[in-house]
Write a structure and sequence with these properties.
By secondary structure, the protein is an alpha+beta fold. It has 3 helices and 3 strands, in the order ααβββα.
């Protein structure tokens, strides 16, 4: 067993979650990001993240299942609409964050003339 699992909570799971998964967890499914979903006899549901723990990695289908909104286990092969985008985790604080295009002051066309 990896020592990171015992001493750090931000590497996939805690020791408690690891033990809970081994002794009472039933594997339910996996999403396209590699997250694994589990349940037990008490109908508790949890996720083991692939890589760093980031709650926004959970897709909308699995989010509904995790919060007991739906009982149907999400299927990756289910047909999606054309307008539905692929799920992305929150990229804030990374190099992939959203950055609006900066407009130079000289390129702004005013609809009025300022006083001189």
């Amino acid at each position: 067993m990896n020592l990171k699992i015992i001493f750090t909570w931000w590497n996939r799971q805690t020791l408690g979650t690891f033990l809970k998964t081994i002794f009472s967890g039933k594997f339910v499914g996996k999403d396209h990001l590699g997250n694994k979903y589990y349940t037990n006899k008490k109908n508790e549901r949890w996720v083991i993240y692939s890589g760093n723990i980031e709650a926004t990695k959970i897709t909308s289908d699995w989010y509904l299942w995790m919060h007991h909104t739906i009982d149907k286990i999400p299927d990756e092969n289910e047909k999606k609409y054309k307008w539905q985008k692929e799920h992305l985790e929150n990229k804030t604080g990374t190099n992939e964050r959203y950055q609006p295009v900066k407009i130079k002051k000289n390129n702004i066309k005013k609809k009025y003339e300022s006083w001189k």
